[in-house]
Amino acid sequence: MGANEGESIDNLIEAAAAALALPIESQWKPGIKSNLQVTLRLAAMVAEFELPDEAEPAPVFEA
Amino acid sequence: MDAWASADRIASAVAAGRTSAATVVEAALERIAERDKALNAFTAVTRERARAKARAVDRALAEGKPAGPLAGVPFAVKNLFDIAGLPTLAGSKINRDRPPATADSPLIARLEAAGAVLVGALNMGEYAYDFTGENVHDGPSRNPHDTARMTGGSSGGSGAAVAGGLVPIALGSDTNGSIRVPASFCGIFGLKPTYGRLSRARTFPFVASLDHLGPLARSARDLALAYDAMQGPDPEDPICADRPADPTLPLIDLGTSGLRIAVASGYFKHDASPEVLAAVAHVAEALGASLEIEVPEAARARAAAFVITTSEGAALHLDRLRTRARDFDPTIRDRLLSGAMVPGPLVVKAQKFRRWYREQVLRLFESVDAILAPTTPFPAPRIGQQTMQLSGAEVPLRPNIGIFTQPISFIGLPVVVVPVPLEPLPIGVQIIAAPWREDIALRVAHALDQAKVAAARRPTE
Question: Which of A14, A26, B209, B318 is 20 to 30 Å from B197 at the Cα level?
Answer without folding.
Answer: B318
